[in-house]
Every structure is written in C-alpha cells, then in structure tokens.
Design brief:
The protein is globular and about 55 Å long. It has ten helices and five strands. It is of the alpha/beta class. It has a five-stranded parallel sheet. The structure holds S-adenosylmethionine. S-adenosylmethionine binds next to α1, β2 and α6.
Length: 188
C-alpha cells in the first residue's frame, strides 16, 4: 500500500479536538503521555534548538516549549496547526514558539541541513509513511545536526492490533480471516 498524504491530511483535518483529549481519557493514554514525556525530558536540554514534527494539537508542544531554547512546529494538517496555535495562545506559550509550518515531513525544504539539535517525531507520522518511510527518516537525519538527537516513535503491529482489536474482529466477521492476515502482514 502506497503512502497517500491526502488520506492523512483529510483524517487530521477532520479530527476535531480528539487529538487534544486522547492522552488523558484513559489509563492507556495517560501511560503513553507520561512515558513519552519522560523521554523528552531526558534527552532535551535548555539550550537546544528543537523541531517537533507531527505535533498535532500540541499535547507535547506545551511541554517542549518550556524545556528548550527554540521550538519549531510542523504538521501536515492545517487544522491541527490552527488548533495547536490556539491552545498555545490560551496557555500563554505562543510567543515562545519560533514558527509553525503546515508541511509534509518527507519534504521539509524550508529547513537547512543540520539545523536542529533535537528532532521529535512521535505519535504516528512515521507509521503513516508506508513505502516512503525511508524518505521520512532521511529528512529527519538531514535536518538534525551531527551528534544531535532524534526522538521518534512508531505504531507497532502488536500495539495497534491490541488497541484496535474490536475493529479487527469486526473486519474478520465481515471479510473473513484473510482480512486479519492482511493486517498482520502489512501493519495497515
Ligand atoms: C496521532 S497525532 C500525534 C500528535 C502528537 N505528536 C502526539 O503524539 O500526541 C499524529 C499527527 O501527525 C501528523 N502527521 C501525520 N503524517 C504527517 C506527515 N507526513 N508530516 C507531518 N505531520 C504528519 C498528523 O496530522 C497528526 O497531527
């Protein structure tokens, strides 16, 4: 299955405020949030120039902006960027953010090579890239300074399988066991 930026953009442009609330609704969300936060706090330092890719509504933007020197935010969805800006304004943090960009992470030509000390890409963007995954990782490497840090996350098959188990069961009932095998084989 090939990467289709329009599908991703469309999904997150029509996501409402669910991105803002998803990490506080249940124990799984809270755990995800705390584990990621711990990693960010461990690797990002006060003098760092940081790029957050796929920032979504800003759950981590609001933390990152307090622990680094400069923060730049990127997301493919104009809705998510608008939402993020609004939240940062409400929290009084908007002026501390260097820039917001609506852009696809496989094409970030607005940034120089080696521009950032840290690049953060968590919560799914890499997993959506499918056959363009290597290009995405290449872009992360290009914009990160030599010796810098990239903090990235992907959705594992096991994690996604258990999280979406009811949907997978539903597909099995509708389309048979081959539909389940397809999910396991492709991760999609
Ligand atoms: C599940 S949200 C995660 C938001 C935040 N990083 C978090 O972990 O809470 C995924 C975000 O990645 C963005 N995204 C997906 N593919 C992207 C791409 N190719 N380039 C930039 N952003 C992307 C989506 O628009 C969405 O806002």
């Amino acid at each position: 299955m090939a990467y289709n930026a329009d599908i991703v953009r469309d999904r997150y442009d029509n996501y409402g405020d669910r991105e803002w609330t998803r990490l506080e609704q249940d124990a799984n969300g809270i755990l995800l949030y705390e584990v990621h936060k711990e990693l960010l706090f461990r690797h990002i330092h006060k003098l760092d120039n940081v790029l957050e890719i796929g920032a979504g509504s800003g759950r981590y933007t609001k933390e990152l902006v307090d622990i680094c020197n400069e923060l730049t935010v990127v997301d493919i969805s104009s809705h998510q960027v608008k939402f993020n800006k609004q939240k940062m304004k409400e929290l009084g943090k908007i002026d501390a953010i260097k820039a917001f960009h609506v852009a696809d992470m496989i094409d970030m030509d607005m940034f120089e090579d080696d521009e950032f000390d840290n690049v953060v890409c968590i919560g799914g963007p890499l997993s959506y890239l499918l056959d363009k995954e290597k290009e995405g990782v290449q872009e992360l490497l290009r914009v990160t300074k030599p010796g810098g840090t990239i903090i990235m996350g992907v959705m594992s098959i096991i994690g996604a399988f258990s999280y979406y188990f009811n949907g997978i069961l539903h597909e099995k009932e509708a389309y048979g066991i081959d539909a389940t095998k397809w999910v396991i084989d492709t991760g999609v």
